[in-house]
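hey so u asked for the seq, here:
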Amino acid sequence: MAQENPSWGYTTIRGALYNLGHVVARETVRNILKENGIEPAPERSKRMPWSTFLKSHWDCIAAADLFTVEIWSSFGLVRYYVLFFIRLSTRRVHVAGITPQPHAGWIKQIARNLTDPVDEFLLGIRYLIMDRDAIFTAEFRSFMKNEGVKVVRLPARLPNLNAYAERFVRTIKESCLGRMIFFGEDSLRRAISEFVGFYHHERNHQGLGNRLIDPREEFGLTDGPVACRERLGGLLRYYYRQAAQPARKGICRQSREGRARGERSAPHANRFRLSFPMPAARSCAAIEFLDTTGSKIAEPAQMSCHSPLEPNVKTPAAIGRACQPSSAYRPRSSDASARKNSTSAC
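ran it, structure tokens below
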């Protein structure tokens, strides 16, 4: 209680213990604190550990840092600088820029991007921790101050004071960049982009209770097959469960006998079905055109194997039994008149 509440004195701690069912004297509390090396309340309240300060301002603190990567180019080995920002409360990382030659104009443009009212990464941030690197110019610090972000410059040669940013540098180099050889700037940008996606969605963080920063939809599934998502050729792997796919209902064609017995039709039973393709020079004299309820929808002589409006579109709802030439069922005009005369004579 005394360590978590620096302003609590002996009497206050005694009252808190009484609320928990422990009756102790004030001198007993004093002796216990003295044996454990804990100072009285006036002295404790004057000093605040760095860890306590960070936790009390957790949601409004961000850190910035810079690291280098060497890549091969047409001019030989070139050193690139990668500037990133990290929010201490969520461990979310934003890679602000990658360049072989950082300069004042470049860092100032990054400051504008970070404080943009639409996509700003530093929204709600009041303190920005950074080292004394020359790239963080006075103009950059002044711009941040005007935007309501106070820059906290760390003492020289004390990287432990920016431990969260330094830990990210170690993680990305050990897990990704230190295991690859880069040829050109595009390969470096792709590797960093893939790792940042892995870092946010697929990597467990011990500082967050061994949890993910931003889990995806498949997180927490207990059923389904186990799958592996690979990045950078298998350098980064993430195991998850695939969502179980519901059984798909098949659409089958029912016979007349089934409909006559009252069997239930498929979900799309009242829709027409497409016929098989047939040559344009042949017609469908011996084909019955039925819908899926069994009703006859047209006479064979009035329909061809293809739609009259769109010759290349198949006629719907055709159940083919045979296909014979047009002359087999559509007589010519002269033959039709002769047959009519013969019928009248009979």
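The chain has three domains: 10-47, 56-208, 271-333. Confidence is low (pLDDT under 50) at residues 250-257, 263-290, 297-334, 342-346.
lmk if thats what u needed
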